[in-house]
Amino acid sequence: MAGKSGRTIIAEEKFSLKKLLVRWETFLVIIFILVNIMNANISDKYMSVPGLFNATNSFLSIAFLTLPMCYILLIGEIDISVGAQVALSAVLLGISFNAGLPMWLAVIVALGVGVVCGFINGIIAIKFTELNPMIITLGTQILFRGIAEMILKDQSTGGFTSVKWFSNLYWGKIGGVVPIMFVIFVICAVIFGVVMHKSTFGRRMYAVGSNKLAAKYSGINVPKMRLTIYTLTGLFCGICAVFASSQMGSARPNVGSGYELDAIGMCVLGGVLTDGGKGNFIGAMISVFLLGLLKYGLGLVNVSSNIMLVVKGALLIFAVMIPHLNLGRFFKKRAVKAA
Amino acid sequence: GSKSDSGEGTTTAPTQAATDNTDDGSGDAGSADPYATDGTYAIIVKSAGNPYNKKESDGYKQVIEAQGGTCVIQEPEAATAEAQITCINNVVSQGVDAIAIAANDTDALEPALKQAMEQGIHVMSLDSAANANSREVFVNQAGTTEIAQTLMDAVLDISGGEGNWAILSAASTATNQNAWIDGMKSVMQDSKYSKLNLIGVYYGDDEYQASVDQTAAILADDPNVKVIVAPTTVGIMAAAKVLQDEGLTGKVKLTGLGLPSEMADYIGADDAHSCPYMYLWNPIQLGNLAAYVSIGLVNDVITGAAGETFTVPDANLGENGSYTIKEAADGGTEVILGAPFAFTPENIAEWATVY
Amino acid sequence: MAEEYILELKGITKIFPGVKALNGVQFRLKKGEIHALMGENGAGKSTFIKVITGVHRPDEGEIFIDGTKVELKGPKDGQSHGIAAIYQHVTAYPHLSVTENIFMGHEKVKRGFIDWKQMHQDAQDLLDQLNSDFKSTDEMGNLSVAQQQMVEIAKALSSNAKIIIMDEPTASLTKNESENLYRIAEKLRDEGASIIFISHRFEDMYRLASRVTVFRDAKYIGTYDVDKISNHDLITAMVGREITDMFPKPDIKFGEEVLRVENLNREGYFKNVSFNVRAGEILGLTGLVGARRTEVIQTIYGVEKLDSGKIFLEGKEVQIRNPQDAIKYGIGLLTEDRSNLGLIQSWGIGRNITLTEIEKYGNKFFTNDKAERAAAKELAENVDTKAVSLFDKVSTLSGGNQQKIAVAKILASDLKLLIMDEPTKGIDVGAKAEIYDIMGQLAQRGYAIIMISSEMPEILGLSDRIVVMCEGKVTGELSRDEATQEMILEFAMAKSLKATEKE
Amino acid sequence: MEKKSLWKTITGSREASLVIVLVILCIFIASRNSTFLTLGSIEGLFKNYAVNFVLTCGMMLVLIIGGIDISIGSTLAFSGMTASLILRDFPETSVLVAFLISIAVGCVCGLIIGAIVAFGKVPPIICTLGAMSIYRGLAYLVAKNEWVSASEFSKAYKAFAQSRYLGFGLINNLVVIVIILLVIFYIVMKWTPIGRKVYAVGSNAEAALVSGIKVTKVKVACYTILGALAGLSGAMFTSLYASSQGNMGEGIEMDVIAACVVGGVSLNGGRGSVVGVFLGTLIISIIGKGLPMIGVSQFWQRAIKGLIILLAVIINVLVQRQMDKAALKRREI
Ligand SMILES: Nc1ncnc2c1ncn2[C@@H]1O[C@H](COP(=O)(O)OP(=O)(O)OP(=O)(O)O)[C@@H](O)[C@H]1O
Ligand SMILES: Nc1ncnc2c1ncn2[C@@H]1O[C@H](COP(=O)(O)OP(=O)(O)OP(=O)(O)O)[C@@H](O)[C@H]1O
Ligand SMILES: [Mg+2]
Ligand SMILES: [Mg+2]
What we know:
The complex is a heterotetramer of chains A (339), B (355), C (503) and D (333).
Chain A: H1 17-21, H2 24-42, H3 49-74, H4 82-98, H5 103-127, H6 133-152, E1 157-158, H7 164-171, E2 173-174, E3 178-179, H8 180-198, H9 200-210, H10 212-217, H11 222-248, E4 250-251, H12 259-269, H13 281-300, H14 305-325, H15 327-338
Antiparallel strand pairs in A: 1-4, 2-3
Helix pairs in contact in A: 2-13, 3-8, 3-11, 3-12, 3-13, 4-5, 4-6, 4-11, 5-6, 5-11, 7-11, 8-9, 12-13
Chain B: H1 21-28, E1 40-44, H2 51-66, E2 70-74, H3 81-93, E3 98-101, H4 110-118, E4 122-126, E5 137-140, H5 144-159, E6 163-169, H6 176-187, E7 196-203, H7 208-221, E8 227-230, H8 233-246, E9 253-256, H9 260-263, E10 278-280, H10 283-298, E11 309-311, E12 322-324, E13 326-327, E14 333-336, E15 341-343, H11 348-352
Parallel strand pairs in B: 1-2, 1-3, 3-4, 4-5, 5-14, 6-7, 6-8, 8-9
Antiparallel strand pairs in B: 10-15, 11-12, 13-14
Chain D: H1 6-12, H2 14-32, H3 39-48, H4 50-64, H5 72-89, H6 95-118, H7 124-142, H8 155-160, H9 173-191, H10 193-203, H11 205-210, H12 215-241, H13 252-262, H14 274-293, H15 298-330
The structure holds adenosine-5'-triphosphate (ATP) (2 copies) and magnesium ion (MG) (2 copies).
The site of one magnesium ion has 4 residues of chain C, from helix 1.
């Protein structure tokens, strides 16, 4: 059964420089370069390899949350309970450690707690599809942090520094320069990026994010995917909790407050928008480093964090507004008119 | 949560000259005193937008600059340990000589501060201590026992020797609140206080609205409560407001630790005011002393070990500027600024304009 | 001289980014006439309508109402000139009541406050005029598509417009309801309104219109008197080529039974539904709107849960819990609502076609773009889409071409049974013929096909066997030879008839 | 139209089920603490949560049009701080003027958000996430990191939140503001074409566009109104607490959104009622005020609140499903 008209269809994507140039990621790279040039100019201490690696430590532990958050946003949902999941995981890591468990087991407990929290979010989300994920995770956000508070009250649980390898997770550096956490992050990021862009799972995530119903009718198991992603998010909250605990050598119920907005902000600045089906993993990763290094550079010259708040907010809004001004479309329309 | 903070710490009697003393300090700067310096000193406060902390950093900066050094002020964007660690990283990268920090969390800064110390940076804390492992010395506003004793005596005095009383705390992440409360409980063992009955400790989380709710809960739990002690600036403010609004100023009295500017309206001896007197210390002087201690550590005037004595070139501090470093309860060492200062109906108007 | 034309448009051009939707078209509407507007999918009809109502502003061209040149800056301007429209894609407020849907924008206000009582009453009166079976206080979202279409009509009536535009109002109506609509349209015309009527159904045009204007490829082709132009010429004008045989069903030997369902039940939807279909057979499933045909096949496809009943595939009983299961068993579904359920509008056609079967081209974990594109290219060429490249977004295609892509998409899977729900809904005559052609070829290749349709000619012309449903029950089954329009209608309206149990 | 039976009305309306939750909550708390249901205590509750009531009204608007605004806490702080600074520097400023200044600042904040969302096509959650940090930063910056403390406010301003002159000596001023707002919102949303336009935009923006509703205008208006209400809250907040701090109102957005959701406003737009929102806020406030009164440990309160929010929304879904099912059962086949 062949087409009657014998028309053929172009199957190759035309390379278009213009298209590449109007991509959001291109803008991000440009901003990234500009920020680095600016930073290098305002502080002569900025351009030092150990210094920069050091700086990555400040933001990479939160950045672990951006990895699954990209997926969550990609399928058109949102999880604002991640900070609370980090808190609960960290608190239970501390509790188990101080109850005499070996640290490796306590780490597994933390990861397990994260997975359970994520799973709870996921289960509620798929069993009650009527509910907007925002309200589910708003509820669990309060609940998870509340449980952490119930367990630890206003106390902290600490003493993690006594376990050297655990301290090294955050503080250790390979060859004295490259932080261990940086290496782990890069490995995780590569895996997440490949899955998002090269795997069947990734393609299906884009489908679910673009149109949940059409995806369902196309034989995609949407509930399973959502459950998987929420649970994965929980796991990475556990991972983030492990690094945060290593960073601080102790844990408290207020750990990770506000992480959710930081993580969402980084994804969104990277072009993984909240309406689903859009964005690119590279963009999110560029924005992680863009924001982190911007903050580091301004911190080096002791700019008040109030000004940083304003800059960060403005950057976020402009970042999302620029693609909407849609230069590509503007060119196209002119071309048609001319024709 | 909005940690508006500062009910932590203790100290000194601000003399009338408190506002001028920094000028005196700078006057001394020229001579070749052991506190002259050309180094860079960083102070990390609890968070941006906290005027109490700002007074501390102002005091710190005045002295550092007067002594010839460079002062770096870092204000974390939130009152969390994470944000402070970022600040620590920043100042370490800048290659400062010393860090003074008002810790948002006792233990959580240990790894970061230890790393700074390993790089040869002198680390001390002020206002709210980082744990013993992560500092060379702590500049304490007031000793825990002094505060506990002072507050207990205030309860005894205000209640007339007997009756029910309650504590409105902050549930702050800084441990000093609980240290004071424990201290008060042990002071209470004395038979002198036997007719006082503590009905409970309430936690307002250093949030205004929560503190208001907690105050209401105190009043609901025990309508006969006589005295509320709030060793937190937010808590005392909220409690004062509730008592005022409920028209209970004659019936329930209030004391604790509070900012004079916030509490000026509520302090008075009559039944129209709920708070007969309260205590605090002078944050500017705390910053001043912290700066001298920082310079002292860098210039090797002191090492931070217990038993050391030193004299700062500012007669308004301590007894003619002389201090002794003592063992602190947490196993580290500390310098105590002085005893808590009482704000009374007589002096409050004057202090309300200072901080 | 009183103006003969109440509405006149000249040289209208409208450009969307990348598409010239209208290219210098003209149009004249007489007072008190019903004027049909016809043309292939994507010819620009709906865009043209939106220009008339002021939703779109034309890039070039002039609009005259009653001989005076007007400029419509927005829908409000259109309304104030007495223009009302029933848009092609139902523009409902699902959370609001029917009353509000009807009166939104021109509420009945008394002393600044809405007069709810009066408004509900007026809305109910309008609904009664239309013989509708729901209440003005019902929530719009709970109504079926056809019922919502009724509300749209009531909305247009409520504004007492002198120019009423109906963009494919009959697309989701059955014969009966269409008949109802014809009467309303005629009544309005007799009361002095002028009506523009867009439809792909020739019967609509013959029944109603006195003149017809044809667009093709965004251009004006001509205006004809309906009784002076032959069907054949009209089709040629629309399509630009000749269409010979609409229903080219080749003779096919039926194979084994592919699907048999027995006593399917879903509470509140349908009861004891049984039928079967064999390889190479096209089973027509018809009935009036609300007959719950869509629900039955959605249940078979695993979208909804079955309360009781059995499904046999090639003689073996199977459990289908979700669409994955259905696809695994070789069942494909072409949905009724292709723009929301069938395709991902923001994607290119290539990725849409391969979505269901990505694993087939790569492996369980990784995609293989090259293999995917090759497969998508072949499938897209097979259905003869007008798209130029696999990277053309679905949203830029006309309805007919979208439907072809949807067909290509289900053909990507290894199927035995195709379920096609209203496969030609809203599709122009040219594309229809092509879809019929594709269906015939598929049957010949041994697929079993279930076709749901409300269009009598299609059911009669294509089906080998016809199952008729009425309000959730199977009321009759007819072979191709015995079926007549009357018999089908009788079964379809067998409201009080007891369901005839089928083996 | 047949009259619905009482039972049907109760089970069929979200508001009725909220009332039941409310009654149970009140009885439970009152049985353990008799002072809870006294007039004074009730007025105190409304007074202390007046800000939440005001904000939920505005948030409801924004949620109905399918948007969201998480920057209200920051707007509250920025506008409240601006008004406080003016009161500090010009002590003779009247209460009304201070309130108007605060409202005006909030209005501008909201207008900017509305414009960015409507014209810049920035998703609201992102826009307000950005605005949240910008306005918070500005609140600190205008105050140069200072607080405005009780002694720096005028007597009249501090007294405003404690007096009853707007309520003819019977009702606290702040409570009067809340009551007036609720009544206005109730009437506008239910009985005027303007209110219905908001629902129309939220229900189907495209349909609203073709029926001639200026969708962007409605959107901008809703955000502006929320901004203005956040400004009003800023003044109420500073007057009530007689203190103005850069971090005030932090996190209030979550409480406000939670109250709206418990009150039945759909985060997907198109649905929500003033009565529901009122009840939702009341429930959240009672959890905040009531739990400490019955001696629930401070450290348990957050978890309980989270649990109640989750249960409220889940139970609502279950009830809805049950109703749908019952309707299907009745349907004849
Ligand atoms: N908002 C829009 N943006 C971009 N392109 C559009 C838009 N609306 C319509 N088009 C394009 O304009 C062309 C004409 O579309 P239109 O909907 O007017 O066709 P039609 O004749 O109504 O077709 P159908 O019979 O399928 O309803 C199509 O190619 C369509 O894709
Ligand atoms: N009496 C009714 N009351 C409420 N809802 C109904 C009623 N009848 C049908 N519906 C709803 O309408 C839809 C079924 O109507 P619809 O017209 O789509 O049936 P169908 O058989 O799928 O139609 P078609 O014959 O066009 O395929 C379902 O969503 C159903 O819930
Ligand atoms: Mg059309
Ligand atoms: Mg159907």
